[in-house]
Amino acid sequence: MAILDQLDVLACPHCGGPLSLSSDGRAVRCANGHSFDLARQGYLNLLGSKQPRNADTGPMIAARDHFLSAGHYQPIAERLSALAAGSGSGADSRLLDTGTGTGYYLATMLDRITGARGVGLDVSVAAARHAARAHPRLAAVVADVWQPLPLRDGQFDVVSSVFAPRNAEEFHRVLKPTGRLLVVSPEPEHLAELREPLGLLSIEEAKSDRLEAALSGRFEADEAVRVQFESALDGATLSDLVRMGPNAFHLDERAIAQGLRGLPVPFTVTVAVTISVWAPRRP
Ligand SMILES: C[S@@+](CC[C@H](N)C(=O)[O-])C[C@H]1O[C@@H](n2cnc3c(N)ncnc32)[C@H](O)[C@@H]1O
Ligand SMILES: [Zn+2]
């Protein structure tokens, strides 16, 4: 189990102490007796409470898996991996991907950086279950980005957040001083063609300013790379694309199905994101 190779970077969510494997090999625990069962599927739940309502559901994860495995966002994953390889320290690198979903981006980074190990963290149990199978060097952990992360200080060369929430304070704490934070965020043009016909959530123009405001107390902007391309998608793929994202929480099934029926296929969408690289400020 990949999780057992990465206990050294994990911390007890209750007392912050180091974790080790229990004598029967079925749980991990700290010196204060806090204990967490290892799931049969290979992930470790360090959440300590019920998962919040905005955690991705099983059907969202399945749709995301179909879509990503078909390679539709591969140019993003490749560019992110190149930036991660440039930020890390090679085979000893430790990566953390927060809001990892299916683990697709972290698995791609681990493929491109031989020997690196990665923690994939998500508040969704369905996500962690999937991510645990995504790569042999990926340890899947259930935890909430908005709580103190169950991770030790200064252990990671790279922290990434792809279309997921960001906690500047905690990302800064777990990064090595020489490490880098990589953030993938959508541009206003991202999937713009689908917004009106399907009533999807829009991406505000001011999002990059908000990112800067949220991170700049703890991080300095290093570089930013825009990835933009067009993709012609068939009906099943469009359906996965809508069902895998936050729109699944906002639209009912009937509205999605009706909107999709009205679209010509193949339907061409613009994919437009920025990958920004951030260096931690000295404390
Ligand atoms: C839009 S999805 C992106 C998933 C993945 N990074 C990708 O791009 O394929 C957002 C992910 O963040 C997770 N998430 C939402 N709130 C979270 C939180 N507070 N802590 C950790 N993960 C969270 C969701 O469960 C979901 O898997
Ligand atoms: Zn403890």
What does this structure look like?
The chain has 283 residues and is an alpha/beta fold. Helix content is 31%, strand content 26%. It has a single domain (42-280), classed as Vaccinia Virus protein VP39 (Rossmann fold). It has an eight-stranded mixed beta sheet with strand order 4-7-6-5-8-9-11-10, sandwiched between helices. Strand 5 (94-98), helix 3 (104-112) and strand 6 form a beta-alpha-beta unit. The chain starts with 19 loop residues before the first strand and ends with a strand. The mean pLDDT is 93. It binds S-adenosylmethionine (SAM) and zinc ion.
Tally of separate domains: 1
Helix content: 25-40%
Inertia-based shape: globular
Poorly predicted runs: none
End-to-end C-alpha gap:
35 Å
Instruction: Give Rg in angstroms.
Output: 19 Å
In brief:
The protein is an alpha/beta fold. It has helices at 58-69, 74-87, 104-112, 125-131, 168-174, 192-198, 207-215, 235-243, 247-250, 253-261; strands spanning 20-21, 27-29, 35-37, 44-45, 94-98, 117-122, 138-142, 156-162, 175-186, 219-233, 267-280.
Give a quick set of tags describing it.
283 residues, alpha/beta, Rossmann fold, 8-stranded mixed beta sheet, 3-stranded antiparallel beta sheet, 10 helices, 31% helix, globular, binds S-adenosylmethionine, binds zinc ion
